[in-house]
């Protein structure tokens, strides 16, 4: 403890009443942990965190529903791909031979079995498996994410109208 005439480092003067936390208390006396002078502030914090938890739950539910919808769309797309490959296998048989058509049918079977496995899994199982994959081999996960991002960007770009020189000539000068 410092002597009464010596101030702590960085202090240039004494602020009167700085050690008093209430008019009823002695200087330097602190509230016990059972005393709550800030009860309204606690109610506000509880309300805030209660609302935060509610919104977090809603966001989780929404994300789950989007994930389920995405899973359903992905499996439907895989099923369409399987049908397309199976249809193409017949044409490949006629043009290149049955050996190449069999390759296409085996590829379709592999995609079909993956699609069935994917359909049977719960969204939480898929997320857990994805987390494990990222933990085991993060480089592969980053590569797959980059490839998927590239494909999605190409698909999105193909849906946008092309900007041509004729369009640029019609545009007003800035």
Overview of the molecule:
With 174 residues, the protein is mainly α. α3 crosses α4. It starts with 38 loop residues before the first helix and ends with a helix. About 6% of the residues have low confidence.
Secondary-structure map:
Elements: H1 39-96, H2 98-120, H3 123-136, H4 138-158, H5 165-170
Short key terms for the protein model shown above:
single chain, 174 residues, mainly alpha, 70% helix, 5 helices
Shape: elongated
The separation of the N and C termini measures: 72 Å
Question: How many strands, what sense, and barrel or not for the largest sheet?
Answer: none
List the helices and strands in order.
HHHHH
**How much is the average pLDDT?**
76
| Residues in helix, % | over 70%
Would you tell me the structural class of the helices and strands? mainly alpha
Compact summary:
The chain has 174 residues and is mainly α. Among the domains are: 78 residues, no CATH class; 38 residues, no CATH class.
